[in-house]
Amino acid sequence: MATLPNLLALYGALDPAESTSNEPEAAEVAARYLPATEGRGGWYRSIVDFFAPRNEAVFPDVDRALESIADSTDEGADALTIPQTARLVYVLGALSHHPDYAPRVEEREGLFARVLALAGPEGRETPVEVGYGLQQHLFDEFDGFADWAHVTRTAVRMGLLEAKIAAVSPCRASVQTVRGYRCAVIDTVSVRPDITLTNLKNVIDPLNWPMNSPELFCGMDKQKPFEVNGWRRVLESVSLGCSLGLERLVTPLKYYNSDVSATKSFVVYELDKGPKDGDGRVKVDQGFIKMEALKPGVRVRTKKIVHITPLSPEAQVVLVCASGYAAMADEMMFGNADDTPADAVKWKPSKPGSGQTESPATDSPTPPQPGLVSITVDMWEKCAKDMTAKNTELSSKWLANKLTVEDLIGYTQYVGADLASAPWRYLKALSQVPVPGTPPEPPGDGSSAS
Q: According to the UniProt record, where is the region Disordered (predicted)?
């Protein structure tokens, strides 16, 4: 059984419509841990019907999903990545408060404890009693989305959780109307101190995504012509189990790579509206990946805005968060950035556009203009100044060989909280410079999901 259907099945257990005991209480739990759903039910069944209309058995029940994960290996479609393990810990922490599953919290060697042990400091060699300790910690301290940073930081300090898992950004989600569609809007901020900006840029090109996440990205094929006005054109194919024959979303996209400076780069992407070879079910798909070099490490901030017909907004939020569809930068940061594959497409900035505002064949706008770049740099620098003291403190400890795991996790969460509020200032500045083709950054409504 592949990892993605297992994860979706566990998240699906939070759907109030799937509860076998107390639907109102289950709705309250869903609202706490998947706030963007607002406690509404029915979204899990729509995801299953969409991706496996003729083979629902691919999506297991909770026990089968947990058994599959517990018995899996670190190879092939069953292997858990660091971001997937973070999402696994999150959903099991949420289920420990669910009326259908709360009694399992006291099982010292049950499936919850066995699976949570996989997130321990020793990976698959972590004793099950450590998993049980993490299970108890999540039950005692994890009361909702807002508690995640504190709970994971404390778990690392207690020796219950691998530090890299605590450094993965939770999926901050909201539902907003963009271009006339009710869309899932996902924001993430992550920091990793032990790789460089160059490491990440060497694997971040969208053509590499199927290499890093082959069960989610079934294909990212070049379109002809590949480059129009600096934008690169691809046909993306996404599923919840490419090797399982599940339904695929096929979408024409265009993306643009840019180096803002020696320490800041970004990828921006959106629908390529001209081609007719997609399936037409993705009506909105746009966003960005912003990368910044730190001393030490790299910080990444992402935004994804997507509408998938005919899924409800709640189903879209859970789908993109649980699957990792909205967090490919995290998958690359904690995946192939460690060891760049020999056949990876290396980073190459896109060519400046010709000045033409649209291409008749592809409706491709010119790349981001200097006004946008200057404002981006200015706002980024203002944000960076607020964290100068933290950067200096961290660098000093690193150079003195006194940097601890707690320092790194604390810094990651400090940065994440600061940047979560930054889009308001950034959005206001960007609104003064209309840039055709640059994905909008609608303000968040405070809703979140992981």
A: 340-372
pTM of model > 0.70: yes
- The secondary structure of residue 269, as a DSSP letter, is E
E strand or H helix at 173: strand 172-178
For residues 238 and 220, the answer to whether their CB atoms sit within 8 Å is no
Q: What are phi and psi of 308, to 5 degrees?
A: -120, 115
3-class secondary-structure state, position 86: helix
CA 43 to chain centre: 19
Q: Which residue type is seen at 259?
A: D
Dihedral angle sign, alpha carbons of residues 114, 145, 336, 393: negative
Contact 160, 135 (CB under 8 A): no
Instruction: Give the helix/strand (H/E) hosting 380.
Output: helix 370-385
**Strand locations in 151-281 (E):** 172-178, 181-192, 217-228, 231-238, 249-259, 264-271
Going through 179-230 in order, the beta strands assigned E by DSSP cover 181-192, 217-228
Q: Is the dihedral of CA 185, 191, 197, 199 positive or negative?
A: negative
The full set of domain ranges for the chain reads 3-166, 172-367
Q: What is the pLDDT of residues 49-62, one digit of tens each?
A: 999 887 767 899 99
**Is 356 a residue whose pLDDT tops 70?**
no
Give me the amino acid identity at 40: R
Tens digits of residue pLDDT in 171-180: 899 999 999 9
Least confident span in 2-6, 254-258, 291-295, 390-394: 390-394
d(CA 424, CA 407): 28
Please, are residues 417 and 362 in contact by the beta-carbon 8 Å criterion?
no
Q: What is the DSSP letter of 325?
A: T
Which residues, in sequence order, are bridge partners of residue 233? 254
Q: Quote the CA–CA distance of 1 and 10 in Å, as a whole number.
A: 13
Neighbours of 99 (CB within 10 A): 16
394 within 8 A of 415, measured Cβ to Cβ:
no
Neighbours of 49 (CB within 10 A): 14
β-strand partners of 192 = 298
Q: Is 235 exposed, middle or buried (0-12, 13-18, 19+ CB in 10 A)?
A: middle
- What is the residue whose two structure tokens read 């099945």? 9
